[in-house]
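Q: For a teaching session next week I want to show students how multiple molecules come together into a single three-dimensional assembly. I've collected the sequence lines for a complex. Could you give me the predicted structure tokens for the whole thing so I can convert them for display?
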Amino acid sequence: MKTDEWDYIIEPEGKVRFYNLTELKKYKDLIFLFVKRDFVSMYKQTILGPVWVVIQPILTTLIFTIVFGRIAHIETGVPSVIFFLIGVVVWTYFADCVTKTSETFIQNQNIFGKVYFPRLAVPVSVIITNLIKFGIHLLVFFVVYLYFFADGGNAYFGPTYYLALVPFALLALAMLGMGTGILIAAMTTKYKDLRFLVQFAIQLGLYVTPVVYPLNAVDEKFQWILLINPVAGLLETFKLAFFGADFAVFSWYQFGYCMVSSFVILAIGMSVFRRVERTFMDSI
Amino acid sequence: MSSKSLSIENLAKQYRLGQFGTGTISHDLNRLWYKIRGKEDPYLSVTESNDRQTKGKSDYVWALRDVSFDLNQGDVLGIIGKNGAGKSTLLKIMSRITAPTRGKISIKGRMSSLLEVGTGFHPELTGKENVYLNGAILGMTKKEVARKLDEIVDFSGCARYIDTPVKRYSSGMIVRLGFAVAAHLESEILVVDEVLAVGDQEFQNKCIGKMKDISKGGRTVLFVSHNISSVRSLCTKGLLIENGVSAYFGDVSSAIERYLKTGISEQKFFVDRSAVSERIGNGQMKIETLEIFVNGQPSAVSMIGDLITIRLKVTSLALSRFKIAIHIFNFAEICVSNIENVDSGFLPDPFAGERIFEISFRDFRLYPDQYTLGFWIGDKVSEETFDYAKNCIGLNVIEGSAIVKRSLPKNSGMVFLTPEWKSLNPG
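A: Of course. Below is the structure for the complete assembly, covering every listed component.
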């Protein structure tokens, strides 16, 4: 064996480099154990247990239906319950991904300060945990959706071939959630103010995303402003797939923009995260 | 066989001192401005060396500077140095918890670091689930843990509770389980912090024993410790770090010798009390100066078996019958010994003026600890205090004595006695 054949070299951070994903792959067992840990511990010592996963979107939807549907009389086109439900399901996934991953460093500083593993394992496990939750939420949506759809009087809406876009929209949503989350996580290690900003921004984000109102109710001149937010475009893709073209604003440009911008945000997030993960223990 | 397994070149780490937060943006912008112009980080050059005691001018210090060494496969390196010398920083960089500012570490094989046992244990998960989780955090795959699960559970001695959530465990059990996982790592290079050896005495010995087994198994181990005797017994090589700089690298006993010598200049071995105006006692006689010699050299650092000499300069206003007492307190402030001149049959005559008393302890036998000495002088009969120099000088007894053949853990005894042993045939 030659003496200059090293397996690993630790060096100071130089240029911007991209993430070493092969290393992350070696830790896939860890990622799944984190997912399992999060699920097992989430509802320990609660009476309703896993039922809480379902209760949250249902209650939110009920309140939205009462406040925005019955009281504010927002015209949703399709039955307001499923309109709000799909909005809540998609928005919850994005919001949870962002808030949970943005806490990566702060929540795990004890572990990170004692042992090395690719730090990205934590945000990736958060995305997967939330994906499972999203799956359960989507199931709830299907049940409600089928109930309304099976009712003969609601034949004016229905699934379209655009359902094929749903997996891509979901992928983009995951990339966007994780990208935004880890970007914030990286910056909060130095500027702690961002933590408060995130909570606030997520609350407000609900209103600039067409969750509680249909986007086509907005003046066409201003729609593009709301569509700068990629979550809006992705949510519209979900609505297009499940409800039909009359109930969503969609164009292929818009879809392309959402995919590309999600990917770009994830790439930026990972590169910043990579720079910070190696020295954040000194500044946190 | 002896191929290189680790190489460190000019490793350096800079830290920022004081309060973070304010000025961060301005420093960042300043850095960026230098970077745009293609210059080096302006804060690297103002950084000072890491001396804990002197307050420097700059906000930045080098916690570690230009440390270089190579290790071969099977080497067991003991890293020693005073508190704040940079041992933990070196450990953190090697464990990849933080990146170096300059320099390079090259590693062959898998490296695991054990800075803590039970990292990432979740209280709601059962013992078994936590073994898997902790193993994965330390870099094992699920398969590897599964293969060793029985061994791990067996070593921990927690078989009965393995399906109980860890929050129901006693703290000792958590430590045991955590160490059991760590002890079954299969990496070629291990970085171990001394603080690992926690828990009760029995378990500490088990940990040290396991570490000995590991180091005999041909693996490269880096071991940070304050406990000189465990470094001496475990390690083959030593690295002494002083103020962030590698002061010595090589053979372990030479490293320890150098380390022990650095302690000497720190301790005060001379106290001048002549200027002290507020004293306990009536001042009829006064203790003016105190000096300590170890084996004839002015020093306050000694080992078991040394010759310790104390010189007291005493002034007396008039002829009075007096006696002198010496109190030795250990670190826990227990009075270990209360010595009077009469104990040794020394009965000095009254004097007026100045006199020096020399007290010699041949073959000093107190356990390694930090002692403080107090000196009392008073009337021989009425015991009225003339002068009392309370806790006025320190004496450090350190490990490493040639006559002690084993480790003497703290609190395991106070006096090192070596009686004569005989074996007799019955009848």
